[in-house]
Amino acid sequence: MGARRRLLIAAVTGLAASAVILASGRLELAPDVLIPLGSVAGTLALMALLGPARGGIVALILMATLNRYPAELGASIKPEHFAAPLVGLALLPQARELLGRLSRVDWLFLAWIGWSVIGGLVHAPDRADSTQLWAMLLLVAFPYFAIVTTTRTAGRLNFLLGAWFAIGLVSGLFGLATHLLYAAGVNLGIQINPVTADPTVPGPFRESNLFGSAMMMLTLTAFALLILAPRWRKLAAVVAPVGFLALQVSFTRTAWIAFVAGGLALAGGLAYLSGRTPFRFDQRALRPAALVGLAAVIGTLVIWVPLGGRGSPDHEEAARQATARATVMATPNATPTMP
Fold first, then answer.
1. Residue 310, pLDDT score
2. Which one-letter DSSP state was computed for residue 336?
3. In the predicted model, what is the mean pLDDT of residues 306-328?
4. Cβ proximity of 191 and 252 under 8 Å
5. CA separation for the pair 233, 257 (Å, rounded)
6. Could you give the CA distance from residue 25 to residue 69 in angstroms, rounded to a whole number?
7. At 199, is the secondary structure helix, strand, or coil?
8. Is residue 323's pLDDT more than 70?
9. Which of 89, 120, 174, 243 could anchor a disulfide with 219, C-beta 3.0 to 4.6 Å?
10. Which residues sit opposite 76 in a β-bridge?
11. What number is the average pLDDT over the span 107-124?
């Protein structure tokens, strides 16, 4: 089977697994069966098609974005919880080689993780809860170690960047569709902001702030590659405006703060490179950068400026929103899904 055909089948497999997981959770179609099935089958299929390392990391990225709906199997188990152990088992035969690739900083990080569980078991008032939090920390750290130990070449890095762009692009488009269709009375999974009691978009993520943070990182990465990497320019020119618009509909303040800080850091880095190294700004990046800016402006007008009447008010929908807002105001830490 050719490489392109494998990539195409892997893309279709990822989309199919995503559709099964999101649809079963949103429509409550046996989520305790279909979410585990989609997570496990999707992860195994990606590793079979792309290899344990490449396919496993792609599966980790994909399943981490699909944590909107968990399976209730005695505890809330998300797709990433199914994917991580499978990827770990697939990489286990290479464990000695992979451990040899860890840097001193990586070993210090591992030591800190190991020490933290000892402190929790000794001092925590609720050892079970402390151990559960430690397991979540380990789950978050595992993709980092998987990436730094298996991504050793420029080709592997470019492949993972392409996968991240593809997954981020589809996630952003899904979030934008959720925002636009909600105005037409179609609810793909809106949440209520616990501070403002306004509808917000979580995309395929559990919360809007996670979606906003992912779109912030996607936008900054795309814009940086738009300027610095000619081979990524066309794809980055598509990804950057989608990520920027999706960031807006997330209503996430911390993501906006990080976006501004990241943009300033990028500008400062470019200034430093221009003044201290042979690096020179590629003038050919000006046109796509200008087109990205224009697309962002037009897209902002489309998603926020009403382009006609919205029809007669839906009193039933207004009542549901009022109920959700009242629930949020009564429990400030809650972020319920719109019914």
1. 43
2. P
3. 48
4. no
5. 26
6. 5
7. strand
8. no
9. 243
10. 72
11. 84
Residue type, 74: G
pLDDT above 50 for 335? no
What is the distance between the terminal CA atoms of the chain, rounded to a whole angstrom?
46
Place of tokens 């897209």: 299
Considering Cα of 207, then 65, then 289, then 154, what sign does the dihedral take? Answer: positive
Residues 6+ apart with CB under 8 A from 310: 183
Owner of token pair 């996607």: 218
Going by C-alpha positions, the residue among 16, 10, 12 that lies closest to residue 56 is 10
Query: 100: which residues sit within 8 A by CB, 6+ positions away?
Result: none
Contact 213, 221 (CB under 8 A): no
Are 211 and 243 a contacting pair, CB within 8 Å?
no
pTM: 0.83
Residue 71, φ and ψ in degrees, nearest 5: -95, 130
**Predicted confidence (pLDDT) per residue in 143-196, tens digit:** 899 999 998 888 899 999 999 999 999 999 999 999 988 878 888 888 877 666
Q: What count of other Cβ atoms lies within 10 Å of the Cβ of residue 166?
A: 19
- Determine the Cα angle at 306 with ends 303 and 307, to 5°: 100
Single-letter amino acid, residue 241: P
| Residue 321 in tokens | 């929103």
pLDDT tens for 236-251 read: 999 999 999 999 998 8
Beta-carbon-side half-sphere exposure of residue 105 (alpha carbons within 13 Å): 4
Q: Are 167 and 173 in contact (CB under 8 A)?
A: no
Query: In this predicted structure, what is the pLDDT of residue 163?
Result: 94
Q: Residue 133: how many CB atoms within 10 A of its CB?
A: 15
How do the domains of the chain map onto residue ranges? 1-96, 100-151, 153-339
Do residues 215 and 247 make contact, with C-beta atoms less than 8 angstroms apart? yes
Which region, left, alpha or beta, applies to residue 203 given φ > 0 means left and ψ of -120 to 50 means alpha?
left
Angle between helix axes 208-228 and 154-183 (nearest 10 degrees) is 130
Tell me how far apart the alpha carbons of residues 272 and 279 are, in angstroms, rounded to a whole number.
9
> Comparing 276 with 267, which gets the higher pLDDT?
267
How many other CB atoms sit within 10 Å of the CB of residue 135?
12
